Amino acid sequence: MAHWLQLLNIELPIIQAPMAGAQDEELACAVAAAGGLGSLPCAMLSPAGVAEQVAQFRARVRAPVNLNFFCHHDPAPAEQALSVWRKRLEPYYRELQITDDIQAAARRPFDEDMCRVVEQLRPEVVSFHFGLPESRLLERVRASGATILCTATCVGEAQLLEAAGVHGIIAQGAEAGGHRGTFSSADTDAELGSFALIPQIVDAVRVPVIAAGGIADARGVAAARALGASAVQIGTAYLRCPESRISEAHRRALAAVRDDSTRVTNVLTGRRARGILNRVMRELGPIAEDVPPFPLLATVIAPLRSRAEANGSGDFSPLWAGQAAALGRPSSARELTELCASGWR
To answer: In total, how many domains does the chain have?
Structure first.
């Protein structure tokens, strides 16, 4: 355990989950200042945006930082599928009196441009979601000196990641909020919860395993340690901290969440993700078989989300949250980090 913390150069075995669209450097700095690993989600940023957030982080705290990237494949044009969904969403457009297009924030896969950013900024940790980038880019990240982490949702994925040379594996249980990190299988009925997944991955690989999913307080941290994890990654609980950048509608939904409030859905981005059940999930999903490929669906949802949020509603927003969301409390990120770390002792 001490060796793993030394490798990451952190004091506490707490990694703040990178949450694209829900945070910036403010949350990462607060977690890092408390002794955990602060993370910056980069999939919705330009290379210049990544550089700006890293500069802000470096100026405010002397601590390692984790840059997180998506590794999905850019989809082929899907005009027919998008046309079907535009028609399906037309009643909502009329209801909200939307006539203007609103550009959705891009979700870009790790590419040559982002690889150059990593080489220039030299973050201490680089993590990937939806698998790994192509080998030539991965080797350049490795040559930069970064510790490489990647998400696995089953034992087979963990073994693939170990064979590819990652330094640590984030074992994402089915309880986790946000996008599932699955990259090798479409058998969603076989998804494992954290209690089943973590020890099986620990037994199957030699690299450290980071537990993710359903961890919101010291009790969850203690359980992850007992299952053999070397650290934990916490996401949803941090959303209630004042340092997060979620909408007021999302904040209200988290304050009212119950144990049965979340569902896995694909009707917000085109890819499976866990969030708080809202109107669009109830009326069009939660799962639809004909969704345009990720991330194209977000382009036709974006105008609805923008107008609804302006009216104080989360009816069309990705209210990402895990199954342990009801355990969260509105504390500062420092307080939450220290509280969760107390479960490791």
So the answer is: 2
What is the band of 229 on the pLDDT scale with cuts at 50, 70, 90?
very high
Are β-strands 209-212 and 125-129 bridged in parallel, bridged antiparallel, or unpaired? unpaired
SS3 label, residue 125: strand
Is residue 117 over pLDDT 80?
yes
The answer to whether 158 and 131 are in contact (CB under 8 A) is no
The token pair at 85 is: 């969904």
Q: Are residues 141 and 83 in the same domain?
A: no
State how far the Cα of 128 lies from the Cα of 292, in Å rounded to an integer: 23
| DSSP secondary structure code for residue 190 in this structure | G
pLDDT digits (tens, 9 = 90+) for 51-89: 999 999 999 999 999 999 999 988 888 899 999 999 999
Q: In this structure, what token pair is assigned to residue 5?
A: 């913390």
What's residue 9's pLDDT?
A: 86
What is the extent of the structural domain holding 145?
2-72+107-245+328-344
Cβ(4)–Cβ(305) below 8 Å: no
Is residue 153 over pLDDT 70?
yes
Decide if pLDDT at 1 tops 80: no
**Residue type at 253 in one-letter notation:** A
In the three-class reduction of DSSP (H, G, I as helix; E, B as strand; rest coil), residue 35 is classed as: coil
Q: Do residues 141 and 91 both lie within one domain?
A: no
Nearest Cα residue to 29 out of 233, 220, 242, 237: 242
Which 8-state DSSP code applies to residue 288? -
| Bridge partners, 273 (sequence order) | 179, 265
Dmax over CA atoms of the chain, in Å, equals: 58
Tokens 């302006």: give the residue.
310
Q: Is 33 helix (H, G, I), strand (E, B) or coil?
A: helix
